[in-house]
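re: the backbone from monday

yeah here it is again, tokenized this time
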């Protein structure tokens, strides 16, 4: 690992990384929390405008590149298929770029890891077989790489086939996402449909605080976020961060419309009676969407990521003791503790009215909670 006193790349490192990206056939960027620095996402988009790079976001804690950029490959918590095909991978501020048991880079892939902590000194089992591990400001590194590439007089025609393939892939993926947003014929409120309706009712500059765990990827893909800072996630393991975090984001951004999205398991872990009492006492209004899927899905999903054919794959929620039957009254908890406006939606026909009313209530200065069951 190399470390620069001023947290920038050396000229040699800039040239090595940039020229390797220039010569790549299938370059890929993997990032996790690059977007916590709001100056960085536009710089990553600029890099992807110059070269036909794809971008994968791991975990989904921050917006690292706007979702309408054709380089965007989405968010995942496992190994993205693009990892298996890439010949050059640039990792930017990311703790877990792939899950080895689910797939890893092919032999010979050139990997660079730029990070505030590339050694992950508090993660003793962490290891990436990278050509370079560099402790650096990714904002400054991206500026350096973009400047170097500007000086190379790149001819976009040299990458015409790669840019065309990227554009085609992105358009196809977006069309697939749009098709999922249609209301299911069985009347169920699917996550893509819910997200598409939520987008229509909250302000365009809404800040979303996300701890939906197993549904986070779907939500992020369908929220169509484009503004740096519009997504706030913990980026770490454990549950129960979402309630206090939503309150904290609203305190930090009092003029912003803040919408938290949590699962039912997170809701129980978050001590929401305290969250909503504090919100009422200090006049901190926000909208909270509770996705009630009847239990803790996250432990089972985590087990399957590592042992896809293990005992968890053959067990139901009751067997694993992760069922929440009978279901608590989640909106009622918020109403009792903080006088929040509360609603439970179980059918599609009630969804738009609840979202519209909940948004209005928050804009008038009172918390609103909508449980989607």
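seq for it, each position gets an aa:
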């Amino acid at each position: 690992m190399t470390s620069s006193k001023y947290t920038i790349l050396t000229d040699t490192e800039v040239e090595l990384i940039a020229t390797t990206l220039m010569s790549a056939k299938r370059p890929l960027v993997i990032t996790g929390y690059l977007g916590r620095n709001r100056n960085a996402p536009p710089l990553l988009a600029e890099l992807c405008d110059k070269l036909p790079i794809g971008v994968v976001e791991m975990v989904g804690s921050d917006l690292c590149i706007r979702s309408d950029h054709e380089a965007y490959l989405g968010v995942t918590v496992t190994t993205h298929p693009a990892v298996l095909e890439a010949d050059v991978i640039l990792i930017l501020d990311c703790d877990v770029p792939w899950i080895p048991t689910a797939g890893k880079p092919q032999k010979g892939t050139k990997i660079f890891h730029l990070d505030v902590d590339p050694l992950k000194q508090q993660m003793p089992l962490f290891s990436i077989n990278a050509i370079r591990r560099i402790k650096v400001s990714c904002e400054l590194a991206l500026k350096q790489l973009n400047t170097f590439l500007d000086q190379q007089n790149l001819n976009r025609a040299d990458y015409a086939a790669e840019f065309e393939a990227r554009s085609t892939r992105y358009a196809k993926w977006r069309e697939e996402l749009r098709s999922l947003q249609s209301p299911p014929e069985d009347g169920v409120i699917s996550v893509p449909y819910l997200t598409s309706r939520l987008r229509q009712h909250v302000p365009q500059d809404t800040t979303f605080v996300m701890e939906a765990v197993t549904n986070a990827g779907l939500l992020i893909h369908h929220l169509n976020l484009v503004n740096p800072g519009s997504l706030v996630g913990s980026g770490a393991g454990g549950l129960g961060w979402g309630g206090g975090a939503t309150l904290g984001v609203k305190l930090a951004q009092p003029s912003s419309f803040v919408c938290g999205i949590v699962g039912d398991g997170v809701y129980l872990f978050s001590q929401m009676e305290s969250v909503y009492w504090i919100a009422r006492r200090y006049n901190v209004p926000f909208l909270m969407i509770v996705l009630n899927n009847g239990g803790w899905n996250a432990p089972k999903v985590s087990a399957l990521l590592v042992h896809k054919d293990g005992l968890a794959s053959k067990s139901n929620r009751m067997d694993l003791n992760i069922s929440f039957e009978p279901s608590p009254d989640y909106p009622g908890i918020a109403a009792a503790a903080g006088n929040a406006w509360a609603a439970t939606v179980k059918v599609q026909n009630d969804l738009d009215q609840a979202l519209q009313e909940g948004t209005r209530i928050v804009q008038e200065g009172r918390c609103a909670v909508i449980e989607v069951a």
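The radius of gyration is 22 Å. The domain at 2-172 is CATH 3.40.50.1220 (Rossmann fold).
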